[in-house]
Amino acid sequence: MNDVQNRNDLELIVKKFYEKAIPDPVIGHFFTEVIPIDWDEHIQVVTNFWDSMIFGTSEYKNNPMSPHIHLNSLSKMQKHHFEKWLALWTATIHEHFEGDTAREVINRATSIARIMEFKMNP
Q1: How far apart are CA 3 and CA 5, in angstroms?
Q2: Spatial CB neighbours of 9, under 8 Å, sequence gap ≥ 6
Q3: Is 27 a member of any domain?
Q4: From the record, what ranges are coiled-coil (predicted)?
Q5: What is the pTM of this model?
Q6: 96: closest CA among 106, 86, 84, 82?
Q7: Quick one: CA torsion of 100, 101, 105, 108, rounded to 10 degrees?
Q8: Rounded Cα gap, residues 14 and 37, in angstroms
Q9: pLDDT digits over 61-109, tens only?
Q10: Domain count within the chain
Q11: What is the CATH number of the domain that holds 90?
Q12: Residue 26 forms part of a structural domain
């Protein structure tokens, strides 16, 4: 199995993650019922975010907290939601990649989940 090497790999992770998350009974409703999502655009925005985080590109120019704060105002995100998101994200990476960069993507996601959880539930 290869390590995460480029944007295409990150896009694969994002797409495969959403294949798990959308039907998930714990977090799926955030993606299907709470707000409408243009999936083509959303996949690109999330891939841009991870490309910036992992490979230092400047593709992502937004504030990642803003849409999540709005989402949280519509449907409260709780600890178990963040745990499920992280579990699905981590499983997706482990299914497709291994190596230092794959571990870095998981480590960054873990940090992001903890920060978002704290900010959503002070």
Answers
A1: 6
A2: 2, 96, 97
A3: no
A4: none
A5: 0.92
A6: 106
A7: 70
A8: 15
A9: 888 888 888 887 888 999 999 999 999 999 999 999 999 999 999 999 9
A10: 1
A11: 1.10.490.10
A12: no
